[in-house]
Amino acid sequence: MAADHFVPHGWKRVSLHELAHVQTGVAKGKREFTEPIELPYLRVANVQDGRLDLHEIKTITVSKNEVTRYSLQSGDVLMTEGGDFDKLGRGFVWEGQIPNCLHQNHVFAVRPNRDRLDPYFLAYQTASGYGRGYFLNCSKQTTNLASINSTQLKEYPVLLPSAGEQTQIVSIIRCWDQGIEIAERLLSGKLVLRQGLMQQLLTGRRRLPRFSSSWRTVRLGRIFRERLETNRADLPLLSITTLEGVIPRAGVDRKDTSSENKSAYLRICPGDIGYNTMRMWQGVSGLSQLEGIISPAYTVITPDSSIDAEFMAVLFKYQPLVHLFWRYSQGMVDDTLNLKFTNLAKIKVTIPEKEEQTAIAGVFRLADREIALLRYELAALQEQKKGLMQQLLTGKRRVNVPVAA
Questions:
Q1: Taking the domain 2-161, which CATH number applies?
Q2: 176 Ramachandran zone, left/alpha/beta (phi>0; psi -120 to 50)
Q3: Percent helix / strand / coil, the chain, rounded to 5
Q4: Helix 129-142 with 354-392: angle, nearest 10 deg
Q5: Contact criterion met (CB below 8 Å) for 239 and 251
Q6: CA atoms of 340 and 252, how far apart (whole Å)
Q7: Longest dimension (CA), the chain
């Protein structure tokens, strides 16, 4: 439990209410005011998904007194009273992004005494393993849901170094934040570029050098057949993910603990494309490089010799074609839609000859390698920051504080 954590030399353990004012927000409801004021306000949705999201800001009608009480100030640390367990206790420092902004009653605004507690130090510490351990323990004591109340927040045991050490720690962690932000921008840019390549290369609007022959329109049922091989429980269990395609089941952090008879599972081979029959309209498909078996909830299709499977796997992620998958799926509502091979076979696509397909697939292979590398680098930075926070914010690793002249 966080309160039992060793207190480093020169640090103190201080309850949050001794270092900051904890303010709950304004509740939205039907009330009448003599002089109503309409102002923007932050909801749980704006602060609970791992970062501040200010794309959609609602307004609320309040009185003048409530404006004074609930207006956010630069340096307030925003926290929600509930949300995902992974994000419980995560705080965000408000920097005055929206003038005269209020906050919802499910959003706490913690206003530190800046002489004693740096807002960013508090935000980082509550989001660290130390802080999350405290809030998760509070949540387990009161409910099965991920939630905290104002009393629990006020009693949060801040591990408090000197102001100078706080400044140094915040400076170091913010450097990691900047690196993560740069990596996120690079990844976002590569994804946008890939989307542009899809719009150009998968439609023939832009041709690669050497290719000029006409493209042909064909039904998918003419170039694919369904693989219906079963009774291969001797093969490894595989799964299909949106980003990684066909991977070993262990790669999705799910152990096969069922006693289910695997005789109905479908064999999938290298060069096959597997797709989730009920989620093909969401683009859940992938080219297999492995041999194994997958759940009967998937469909396995094999291309004929005139088709480059890697090209078709890319094409199957192209949004206009994904929309066609939705149109040809059967079911009353999205949650029950399914695209069996008999309906997929009716869909028409316009494609080049196999040699051009292969060349186009090569372009996307290189783009996907760059994207995978950027995702790996981003994940590494995030993991490094997580470990660094756990060390610095609990005093396990100390920083050098400049001595005043």
A1: 3.90.220.20
A2: alpha
A3: 40, 20, 40
A4: 80
A5: yes
A6: 25
A7: 81
CA torsion, points 85, 86, 88, 89, in degrees to nearest 10? 150
Based on its alpha-carbon atoms, the radius of gyration of the chain, rounded to whole angstroms, reads: 27
Query: Rounded to two decimals, what is the model's pTM?
Result: 0.80
Fold match between domain 2-161 and domain 216-351? yes
Residue range 345-357, pLDDT digits in tens: 999 999 999 999 9
364 with 197: CB under 8 angstroms?
yes
Structure tokens at 166: 């706080």
In single-letter form, the type of residue at position 160 comes to L
Give the pLDDT score at 348: 97
- Check residue 1 and give its pLDDT: 47
* Domain ranges across the chain: 2-161, 179-211+353-393, 216-351
Which architecture characterizes domain 216-351 according to CATH? Answer: Alpha-Beta Complex (3.90)
Confidence of residue 49 (pLDDT cuts 50, 70, 90): low
Side chain identity, residue 210: R
Instruction: Please check whether residue 79 is in contact with residue 110, taking contact to mean a CB–CB distance below 8 angstroms.
Output: yes
Tens digit of each residue's pLDDT (9 = 90 or more) over 312-335: 999 999 999 999 999 999 987 777
- Using CA atoms, how far apart are residues 352 and 371, in angstroms rounded to an integer? 26
User: Cα torsion at 48, 50, 55, 60 (round to 10°)?
Assistant: 20
- Give the contacts of 195 (CB within 8 A, at least 6 positions apart): none
CA dihedral (198, 199, 204, 208) positive or negative:
negative
Going from the C-alpha of 64 to that of each of 71, 347, 401, the distances in angstroms are: 11, 61, 44
Mean pLDDT, rounded, for 74-99: 79
Burial 309-335 (b: 16+ CB within 10 A, else e): bbbbbbbbbbeebbebbeebbeeeeee
Over residues 152-168, the pLDDT tens digits come to 999 999 999 999 999 99
Angstrom distances, CA of residue 121 to CA of 9, 80, 125, 194, 268: 18, 18, 6, 38, 51
